[in-house]
């Protein structure tokens, strides 16, 4: 008995919990399940973006993971270059592991902090302007670069801010190109 019990309402579907058993279909066994995400407040459903906490977790975590992997790869090359004549296999492996761990950990922490600063500034700009577009992301990139290098002086902060804005713009442009030409 394969009948399709779909609802006339597009936002819900009918569910029969005993459909695999030989139980007659009655109205009390059918449930209307939503097909779209449910929100507690209507304001949440109007926003098409992650919350500030989700942004913080996402940017910090991906920054730390990406930085750690890149640092581990650079540390691996550094460990291989530090081989000396007469090193045993255990000593070579130890050099590689120590170098990969140290470089990966330090670069991961730096990039994770950059992600955390970016998430905070982006969430602040979106909350202040009540817009979420490419310009808010570029402003967050400029602010992130400036804040990250602020301890080295005004000139270093300005240069890092410009580089941060350019990097954010390049990432946004690359994302648009991928969306347009690569069907992912």
Automatic annotation (TrEMBL):
<dbReference type="GO" id="GO:0005744">
    <property type="term" value="C:TIM23 mitochondrial import inner membrane translocase complex"/>
</dbReference>
<keyword id="KW-0812">Transmembrane</keyword>
<keyword id="KW-0472">Membrane</keyword>
<dbReference type="Pfam" id="PF02466">
    <property type="entry name" value="Tim17"/>
</dbReference>
<dbReference type="InterPro" id="IPR045238">
    <property type="entry name" value="Tim23-like"/>
</dbReference>
<protein>
    <recommendedName>
        <fullName>Mitochondrial import inner membrane translocase subunit TIM23</fullName>
    </recommendedName>
</protein>
<keyword id="KW-1133">Transmembrane helix</keyword>
<dbReference type="GO" id="GO:0030150">
    <property type="term" value="P:protein import into mitochondrial matrix"/>
</dbReference>
<dbReference type="GO" id="GO:0008320">
    <property type="term" value="F:protein transmembrane transporter activity"/>
</dbReference>
């Amino acid at each position: 008995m394969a009948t399709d019990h779909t609802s006339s309402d597009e936002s819900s579907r009918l569910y029969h919990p005993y459909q695999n058993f030989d139980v007659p279909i009655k109205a009390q066994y059918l449930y209307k399940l939503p097909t779209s995400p449910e929100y507690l407040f209507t304001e949440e459903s109007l926003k098409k973006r992650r919350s500030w906490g989700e942004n913080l977790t996402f940017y910090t975590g991906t920054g730390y993971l990406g930085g750690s992997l890149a640092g581990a790869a650079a540390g691996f090359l550094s460990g291989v270059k530090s081989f000396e004549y007469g090193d045993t296999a255990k000593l070579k492996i130890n050099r590689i592991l120590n170098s990969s761990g140290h470089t990966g950990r330090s670069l991961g922490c730096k990039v994770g902090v950059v992600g955390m600063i970016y998430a905070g500034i982006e969430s602040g700009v979106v909350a202040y302007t009540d817009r979420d577009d490419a310009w808010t992301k570029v402003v967050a990139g400029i602010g992130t670069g400036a804040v990250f290098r602020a301890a080295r002086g005004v000139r270093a902060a300005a240069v890092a801010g410009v580089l941060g804005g350019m990097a954010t713009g390049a990432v946004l442009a690359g994302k648009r190109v991928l969306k347009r030409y690569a069907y992912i």
